[in-house]
Structure prediction request, 105 residues.
Amino acid sequence: MRPPPPGCEDKLMARHGKNGVGVRAARGYDTAVMTKALQKVFEAASKLPDRAQDELAAAILYKLRADVTWATTLRSSLPELERLVAEALREHREDRTTRVDPDDL
Prediction:
């Protein structure tokens, strides 16, 4: 994507408010707006010692990657999950299931 033209960020802030609302794209331009809350976090983090900043950065990246990995895994498992749901519902309709009290487990 091409960089945004000068002043584009100002137009986005005017349209979406001073607090920002996450990532926004304007007419094919790659533009990101960070929320005030996230700005405060990064501002506070910038005052930490270098090692603590690196540890925080690693933890954030780990969490973001884990979220993507989980979403990808779930998406690839959907056909199998749908098959298992259909099988369980069929067995329930055919009265081939047993009611279990969770307290008895």
The first helix runs from residue 8 to 16. The CA atoms of residues 55 and 76 lie 31 Å apart. Residues 48-96 form one domain. The chain has three helices and two strands.
